[in-house]
Design a protein that fits this description.
heterodimer; A: mainly beta; 7-stranded mixed sheet; 4-stranded antiparallel sheet; 11 strands; B: mainly beta; 5-stranded antiparallel sheet; 0% helix
Chain lengths: 113, 112
């Protein structure tokens, strides 16, 4: 199992550009989430999904879209990048039941100039 | 909205000393999880606590969930250099939402 795979690992965008951060998991996990991590701010939830076709907003959803057409994939779209979106983005997944925590991907470091 | 506060923000200890980080939620939680993130790495799940007053141990790590299910702590006995990293707590509201809210973390450094 590859676990949770995020691509790209690094990205530089210009203000106003759009892009999609990819996240894929091969563990057949129902639940997936996107977090952003900024220095001193911990991890803040952007969007999450409890299954294919079902998504919901987290703490900081503005400027981001998600969709979950398959169990495996949960892409995060930046609609019009802003410098405030410079951050490290983590995708995570977990099984739907039981006392299991999230398995995190290795992250995407995004810089918006 | 739900908030999870964690203290201290930083902790520096000598190797062999004990370490404790505390987590406090503004709302009653259904469960709380703890994660460890090594420098430059991604968060790694350590444990989940579900029951009021629950205590769980993993070798030198002891996790507690408060009686009111609004606070939690992680205690490390006799720290080692391998314990270096940032420890996060993360809680879910009792409303049944999957939304998992993280504290800001406690960064632990250990002097050998």
């Amino acid at each position: 199992n590859a676990g949770v795979t995020q691509t790209p690992k690094f990205q530089v965008l210009k203000t106003g550009q759009s892009m999609t951060l990819q996240c894929a998991q091969d563990m057949n996990h129902e639940y997936m989430s996107w977090y952003r991590q900024d220095p001193g701010m911990g991890l803040r939830l952007i969007h999450y999904s409890v299954g294919a076709g079902i998504t919901d907003q987290g703490e900081v959803p503005n400027g981001y879209n998600v969709s979950r057409s398959t169990t495996e994939d949960f892409p995060l779209r930046l609609l019009s990048a802003a410098p405030s979106q410079t951050s490290v983005y983590f995708c995570a997944s977990r099984v739907g039941a039981g006392v299991y925590g999230y398995t995190f991907g290795s992250g995407t470091r995004l810089t918006v100039v | 909205g739900q908030q999870v506060m964690q203290i201290p923000q930083y902790q520096h200890v000598q190797e062999g000393e004990d370490f404790t980080t505390y987590c406090n939620s503004s709302t009653t939680l259904s469960n709380i999880q703890w994660y460890k993130q090594r420098p430059g790495g991604h968060p790694v799940f350590l444990i989940q606590l579900v029951k009021s007053g629950e205590v769980k141990k993993q070798k030198r790590l002891t996790f507690q969930f408060g009686e009111a299910k609004k606070n939690s702590s992680l205690h490390i006995t006799a720290t080692q250099t391998t314990d270096v990293g940032t420890y996060f707590c993360a809680g879910r509201d009792q409303g049944g939402s999957e939304k998992l809210v993280f504290g800001k973390g406690t960064k632990l450094t250990v002097n050998p």
